[in-house]
Amino acid sequence: MEITQSLPQTRTALETKASINADFDLFLKMLTTQMKNQDPQDPMDSADFAVQLATFSGVEQQTKTNQLLTSLQGQIGMMGLSQMADWVGREARSTAPVWVDGQPVTLSPAPAQGASRAVLAVYNAQGQLVSRQDVPVSSAPIEWAPTDAAGNPLPQGQYTFKLESYQGEEKIDTKPVESYATVVEIRSGAFGTMVVMEGGAEIAASAVTALRG
Protein backbone atom coordinates (compact mmCIF):
# COMPACT_ATOMS: atom_id res chain seq x y z
CA MET A 1 0.00 0.00 0.00
CA GLU A 2 1.02 3.60 -0.46
CA ILE A 3 2.55 5.85 2.16
CA THR A 4 1.38 9.40 1.69
CA GLN A 5 2.11 12.73 3.31
CA SER A 6 -0.37 15.52 3.71
CA LEU A 7 0.77 19.14 3.67
CA PRO A 8 2.61 19.64 6.98
CA GLN A 9 1.29 23.17 7.51
CA THR A 10 -1.94 23.80 9.32
CA ARG A 11 -4.38 26.41 8.06
CA THR A 12 -3.35 28.71 10.92
CA ALA A 13 0.31 28.43 9.95
CA LEU A 14 -0.48 29.28 6.35
CA GLU A 15 -2.58 32.27 7.34
CA THR A 16 0.16 33.50 9.69
CA LYS A 17 2.79 33.22 6.96
CA ALA A 18 0.60 35.08 4.47
CA SER A 19 -0.08 37.80 7.04
CA ILE A 20 3.62 38.30 7.79
CA ASN A 21 4.51 38.47 4.10
CA ALA A 22 1.73 40.99 3.46
CA ASP A 23 2.92 43.17 6.36
CA PHE A 24 6.49 42.99 5.05
CA ASP A 25 5.47 44.11 1.55
CA LEU A 26 3.32 46.92 2.92
CA PHE A 27 6.13 48.16 5.16
CA LEU A 28 8.56 48.18 2.23
CA LYS A 29 6.15 50.17 0.06
CA MET A 30 5.49 52.70 2.82
CA LEU A 31 9.18 53.24 3.52
CA THR A 32 9.98 53.64 -0.19
CA THR A 33 7.13 56.12 -0.66
CA GLN A 34 8.22 58.09 2.39
CA MET A 35 11.78 58.40 1.09
CA LYS A 36 10.64 59.44 -2.38
CA ASN A 37 8.30 62.14 -1.11
CA GLN A 38 10.37 63.62 1.69
CA ASP A 39 11.07 67.35 1.63
CA PRO A 40 14.57 67.92 0.22
CA GLN A 41 14.84 70.99 2.45
CA ASP A 42 13.87 68.95 5.50
CA PRO A 43 14.95 65.35 4.91
CA MET A 44 14.19 62.50 7.27
CA ASP A 45 16.18 62.60 10.48
CA SER A 46 18.98 60.03 10.44
CA ALA A 47 17.87 58.63 13.81
CA ASP A 48 14.32 58.10 12.52
CA PHE A 49 15.70 56.48 9.39
CA ALA A 50 17.83 54.12 11.52
CA VAL A 51 14.79 53.13 13.60
CA GLN A 52 12.77 52.34 10.50
CA LEU A 53 15.61 50.33 9.02
CA ALA A 54 15.82 48.34 12.24
CA THR A 55 12.08 47.71 12.07
CA PHE A 56 12.46 46.68 8.44
CA SER A 57 15.20 44.21 9.42
CA GLY A 58 13.04 42.79 12.23
CA VAL A 59 10.09 42.18 9.90
CA GLU A 60 12.37 40.51 7.36
CA GLN A 61 13.90 38.29 10.04
CA GLN A 62 10.46 37.32 11.31
CA THR A 63 9.44 36.26 7.80
CA LYS A 64 12.57 34.17 7.31
CA THR A 65 12.21 32.54 10.72
CA ASN A 66 8.62 31.57 9.96
CA GLN A 67 9.66 30.04 6.63
CA LEU A 68 12.49 28.11 8.30
CA LEU A 69 10.16 26.67 10.95
CA THR A 70 7.73 25.57 8.24
CA SER A 71 10.55 23.84 6.37
CA LEU A 72 11.77 22.06 9.51
CA GLN A 73 8.24 20.91 10.30
CA GLY A 74 8.01 19.28 6.89
CA GLN A 75 11.38 17.55 7.33
CA ILE A 76 10.38 16.16 10.73
CA GLY A 77 7.15 14.85 9.23
CA MET A 78 9.03 13.07 6.47
CA MET A 79 11.45 11.57 8.98
CA GLY A 80 8.53 10.06 10.92
CA LEU A 81 7.03 8.56 7.76
CA SER A 82 10.35 7.08 6.70
CA GLN A 83 10.93 5.44 10.07
CA MET A 84 7.42 3.96 10.07
CA ALA A 85 7.41 2.69 6.48
CA ASP A 86 7.65 -0.94 7.57
CA TRP A 87 4.38 -0.66 9.54
CA VAL A 88 2.38 -0.93 6.30
CA GLY A 89 1.16 -4.50 5.82
CA ARG A 90 1.76 -5.45 9.44
CA GLU A 91 -0.86 -5.74 12.18
CA ALA A 92 -1.08 -3.00 14.80
CA ARG A 93 -2.78 -3.35 18.18
CA SER A 94 -5.07 -0.57 19.38
CA THR A 95 -8.61 0.19 20.51
CA ALA A 96 -9.58 1.49 17.06
CA PRO A 97 -12.57 -0.10 15.29
CA VAL A 98 -11.50 -3.29 13.51
CA TRP A 99 -12.65 -4.46 10.09
CA VAL A 100 -14.40 -7.83 10.30
CA ASP A 101 -14.82 -9.99 7.21
CA GLY A 102 -15.48 -13.44 8.65
CA GLN A 103 -11.95 -14.14 9.86
CA PRO A 104 -11.09 -14.46 13.58
CA VAL A 105 -9.81 -11.32 15.29
CA THR A 106 -7.06 -11.34 17.92
CA LEU A 107 -8.13 -9.46 21.04
CA SER A 108 -6.04 -8.43 24.05
CA PRO A 109 -8.39 -8.13 27.04
CA ALA A 110 -7.33 -6.55 30.32
CA PRO A 111 -9.70 -7.58 33.15
CA ALA A 112 -9.88 -5.36 36.20
CA GLN A 113 -7.85 -6.43 39.22
CA GLY A 114 -9.93 -8.63 41.49
CA ALA A 115 -12.46 -9.56 38.80
CA SER A 116 -14.04 -13.00 39.07
CA ARG A 117 -15.81 -12.83 35.71
CA ALA A 118 -15.18 -11.12 32.38
CA VAL A 119 -17.68 -10.48 29.59
CA LEU A 120 -16.79 -9.39 26.07
CA ALA A 121 -19.29 -6.95 24.54
CA VAL A 122 -19.18 -6.39 20.76
CA TYR A 123 -20.63 -3.32 19.02
CA ASN A 124 -21.18 -2.64 15.33
CA ALA A 125 -20.37 0.59 13.47
CA GLN A 126 -23.72 2.09 14.58
CA GLY A 127 -22.87 1.48 18.24
CA GLN A 128 -25.40 -1.34 18.61
CA LEU A 129 -24.58 -4.27 20.89
CA VAL A 130 -24.42 -7.40 18.71
CA SER A 131 -22.83 -9.94 21.03
CA ARG A 132 -21.96 -10.59 24.68
CA GLN A 133 -20.00 -13.61 25.82
CA ASP A 134 -17.99 -14.75 28.82
CA VAL A 135 -14.25 -14.87 28.29
CA PRO A 136 -11.41 -16.04 30.56
CA VAL A 137 -10.41 -13.67 33.34
CA SER A 138 -6.95 -13.28 31.86
CA SER A 139 -4.84 -10.83 29.92
CA ALA A 140 -3.80 -13.56 27.48
CA PRO A 141 -4.80 -12.87 23.85
CA ILE A 142 -7.97 -14.56 22.60
CA GLU A 143 -9.18 -15.36 19.09
CA TRP A 144 -12.68 -13.97 18.71
CA ALA A 145 -14.93 -15.60 16.11
CA PRO A 146 -17.16 -12.95 14.48
CA THR A 147 -20.57 -14.33 15.45
CA ASP A 148 -23.58 -12.91 17.29
CA ALA A 149 -25.09 -14.25 20.53
CA ALA A 150 -26.89 -17.00 18.60
CA GLY A 151 -23.72 -18.11 16.82
CA ASN A 152 -24.66 -16.59 13.48
CA PRO A 153 -21.87 -14.95 11.42
CA LEU A 154 -21.77 -11.18 11.74
CA PRO A 155 -21.96 -9.13 8.55
CA GLN A 156 -18.83 -7.53 7.15
CA GLY A 157 -18.03 -4.17 8.70
CA GLN A 158 -16.29 -2.33 11.53
CA TYR A 159 -16.67 -3.46 15.13
CA THR A 160 -15.44 -2.31 18.53
CA PHE A 161 -15.03 -4.28 21.75
CA LYS A 162 -15.46 -3.60 25.46
CA LEU A 163 -14.61 -5.81 28.41
CA GLU A 164 -16.96 -5.83 31.40
CA SER A 165 -15.31 -6.97 34.64
CA TYR A 166 -17.41 -8.35 37.51
CA GLN A 167 -16.92 -9.30 41.14
CA GLY A 168 -19.71 -11.75 41.72
CA GLU A 169 -22.77 -10.05 40.25
CA GLU A 170 -21.38 -6.52 40.58
CA LYS A 171 -19.85 -4.90 37.51
CA ILE A 172 -16.70 -3.13 38.66
CA ASP A 173 -15.20 -1.95 35.38
CA THR A 174 -15.79 -1.49 31.64
CA LYS A 175 -12.96 -0.65 29.28
CA PRO A 176 -12.17 -0.83 25.55
CA VAL A 177 -10.46 -3.97 24.32
CA GLU A 178 -7.43 -3.74 22.07
CA SER A 179 -7.45 -5.72 18.82
CA TYR A 180 -5.07 -6.33 15.94
CA ALA A 181 -5.79 -4.87 12.49
CA THR A 182 -3.76 -4.53 9.30
CA VAL A 183 -2.06 -1.19 8.65
CA VAL A 184 -2.72 0.01 5.10
CA GLU A 185 -1.31 3.54 5.19
CA ILE A 186 0.83 5.92 7.23
CA ARG A 187 -0.21 9.55 6.88
CA SER A 188 1.33 12.76 8.20
CA GLY A 189 -0.93 15.73 8.80
CA ALA A 190 -1.67 18.67 11.04
CA PHE A 191 -2.10 16.47 14.12
CA GLY A 192 1.01 14.33 13.69
CA THR A 193 1.56 10.89 12.22
CA MET A 194 -1.64 8.91 11.71
CA VAL A 195 -2.10 5.19 11.09
CA VAL A 196 -4.87 4.07 8.74
CA MET A 197 -6.21 0.57 9.33
CA GLU A 198 -7.97 -1.80 6.95
CA GLY A 199 -11.56 -0.62 6.70
CA GLY A 200 -10.63 3.05 7.09
CA ALA A 201 -10.21 3.47 10.86
CA GLU A 202 -7.58 6.14 11.55
CA ILE A 203 -5.68 6.64 14.81
CA ALA A 204 -2.62 8.50 16.06
CA ALA A 205 0.59 6.51 15.81
CA SER A 206 1.04 7.00 19.55
CA ALA A 207 -2.16 4.99 20.17
CA VAL A 208 -0.59 1.81 18.73
CA THR A 209 0.62 -0.43 21.57
CA ALA A 210 2.12 -3.35 19.60
CA LEU A 211 3.00 -4.58 16.10
CA ARG A 212 3.18 -8.05 14.65
CA GLY A 213 3.69 -9.74 11.32
- The amount of helix comes to 25-40%
Element string (H = helix, E = strand): EHHEEEEEEEEEEEE
Tally of separate helices:
2
Global morphology: elongated
Class based on secondary structure composition and strand pairing? alpha+beta
Quickly give the CATH architecture of the largest domain: Sandwich
Domains counted in the coordinates: how many?
Answer: 3
Q: Kindly, what is the distance between the CA atoms of the first and last residues, rounded to a whole number of angstroms?
A: 15 Å
What is the total tally of β strands?
Answer: 13
- Sheet of most strands: 8 strands, mixed
Give the C-alpha Rg: 29 Å
Q: What's the CATH C level of the largest domain? A: Mainly Beta
CATH topology of the largest domain: Immunoglobulin-like
Arithmetic mean pLDDT: 79
Classify the beta-strand content into a percent band: 25-35%
Residue runs with pLDDT of under 50 for 5 or more positions: 1-13
Keywords: Bacterial flagellum biogenesis
InterPro entries: FlgD (IPR005648), FlgD/Vpr_Ig-like (IPR025965)
Protein name: Basal-body rod modification protein FlgD
Organism: Neogemmobacter tilapiae
Layout of SSEs?
Layout lengths: L3 E2 L5 H26 L9 H38 L7 E4 L3 E3 L4 E4 L8 E8 L4 E7 L6 E3 L12 E11 L2 E7 L1 E12 L2 E6 L4 E3 L5 E3 L1
Parallel strand pairs: 1-10
Antiparallel strand pairs: 2-10, 2-13, 3-8, 4-7, 4-10, 5-6, 5-8, 8-9, 10-11, 11-12
Helix pairs in contact: 1-2
